[in-house]
Amino acid sequence: MPHILIIGAGAAGTTIAAHLSSNGYRVTLSEVPGFIDRLDNIRAAGKGVRIYGMLRAEGFVAFAADLSQVEGVDFVVVTTVADAHKAVADMLAPVVDAVRAVLYFPGNLGSLFLLRRLGSQARVPLLVEANTLPYGCRISPHDAEVARVTVLTPSVLYSGDPSSVPELAEMLAILTPNPVFGGTVQSVLLSNPNPLFHTTPCLLSASRIELDPDFRMYEHGVTPGVRALLGRKDAERMTLLAEVEGRGLAWNELRGLFSKSGSMAEPERQDLEFLACGRAAGFKGPNVLEHRYLTEDTAAGLVCWERIGELTSIPTPIVSAEITLISALLGRDFRTIGRERANLL
Fold first, then answer.
1. What is the DSSP letter of 178?
2. Where are the alpha helices (DSSP H) in 57-184?
3. Beta strand 57-59 with 49-53: parallel, antiparallel or unpaired?
4. Which among 301, 303, 291, 83 has a CA at the least distance from the CA of 203?
């Protein structure tokens, strides 16, 4: 079995580590500088990694704070926040020569940071970006090594040509049983559901986010009026998708599997669209405005969408208005924050 290096030991990285380890893969878990204590917490538990809910699996993994000491890596899986993609490029550049592919969950142009960092390096591995995570998952508040999987995403869109590396395609079929190939970094970026569905309800629910400790964005933030606005925002997104190369995903293709019992074995699992999945799962929050639903999905999502509009001469009035309002709300210029990433396009 291939050796998988996962960079990012949060909920997604922990879940993927347990999922692949339980399927016989050799897995090493790592983190970017500043988050190494997350590795220490998992290692200190001495129980490997474990997931429960719609996926149940456990396995033991190796840990590596220094990638120069990791040998024989076949594939790298990056599950960090978007802000860390530049640091990931710096980590990987010295050791990426022997790696066959680097996969970003989700992409958000992360591979372009690595491509720029490698420059004229003779050998560049296959770079693959995904439009979303394979599942909705959260770390247990009591056990660092345990994650709960509430939603599965069986269809994920990938850029590049993963089918050209059969062992990679086999791994992706484990993580996402119905993978969709044929995307490009731009079409995958525009198919990430988070900038579409997160920023609008959070922006329009700012006062409730700050006042209600039981706020649930998917349940309380998506009112009929907000959903109608999301539809108009999606129309902007689809216009952009029509102008870029590569396969993209429409609203009704952004879906997930949910089961009230939390078990794939139960017959009542439902195939739901993205917003319905989040509502059914009862995901709490956000409870502060400085949350990735606003910060990351604006800087690494909407700002890049707006940039595609500029490059294709397509106006994006709703997306652009959201960037301006969120910048004003948080007192941060998200166009400046996201400019380096957007300029990679």
1. S
2. 85-92, 110-118, 166-175
3. antiparallel
4. 291
Give the dihedral of Cα atoms 105, 108, 111, 115; nearest 10 deg. -170
Rounded Cα distance, 263 and 271, in Å: 14
Task: Give the model confidence (pLDDT) of 14-64 as tens digits.
Answer: 999 999 999 999 999 999 988 888 888 888 877 789 999 989 999 889 998
Q: Indicate the CATH number of 3-183 among 1.10.3210.10, 3.40.50.720, 1.20.1440.230, 3.30.70.360.
A: 3.40.50.720
Stated length of the chain: 345
Query: Which CATH superfamily, name and number, covers 193-342?
Result: N-(1-d-carboxylethyl)-l-norvaline Dehydrogenase; domain 2 (1.10.1040.10)
Give the pair of three-digit tokens for residue 345.
């396009």
Give pLDDT tens digits for 55-86: 999 988 999 888 988 999 999 999 999 999 99
Tell me how far apart the alpha carbons of residues 292 and 23 are, in angstroms, rounded to a whole number. 31
Q: What is the pLDDT of residue 261?
A: 65
Cis geometry, peptide bond prior to residue 179 (ω within 30 degrees of 0): no
pLDDT for residue 155 is more than 90: yes
Q: Coil, strand or helix: which one is 167? A: helix
Token pair of 216 as six digits: 């649930």
> What pLDDT does residue 106 have?
96
